[in-house]
What we know:
Blueprint: E1 2-4, H1 10-24, H2 31-41, H3 44-48, E2 51-57, E3 60-68, E4 73-79, H4 88-99, E5 104-109, H5 114-119, E6 123-124, E7 129-131, E8 134-142
Parallel strand pairs: 4-5
Antiparallel strand pairs: 1-2, 2-3, 3-4, 5-8, 6-8, 7-8
Helix pairs in contact: 1-2
Protein name: N-acetyltransferase domain-containing protein
Domain N-acetyltransferase: 1-143
Pfam families: Acetyltransf_10 (PF13673)
Amino acid sequence: MIRKLTKEEYNHAADLSYQVYMECGKSDFTQEGIETFKDFVYNTSLINALDFYGAFEHHRLIGIIGVNKEKQHISLFFILPIYHRQGIGKSLFVYMMDDCNFTHLTVNSTTYAEAFYQSLGFKKTGEKEINKGIVSIPMERNV
């Protein structure tokens, strides 16, 4: 099941994001990057600026996408690794897109997720960059 998360569930989204980031993104961050990411996902005011959608299996949160509707930007998009390559990320993305009225969408992808974003129609808009210890690739999708 996929649905929009309530503000009370945002801490679960932050925990899932951090867990998957630590498991899957090892090549994309330094110790500084870990602290930068942790500071972001556990900063209530920053997280509350996002709209979150969650994928659930048996009432357990297994994936999230967090978007800043004003900036039309994906800030967080994580699926538990045991659920990768099962269509959950694509389903979450489609659900979010159906709920939002975006004209375009941006993301700073990890190298790990670059091919996934390309499969959703995103194109690179720049080269790999490092910001506060986090490696990312700027990407954009026109709707």
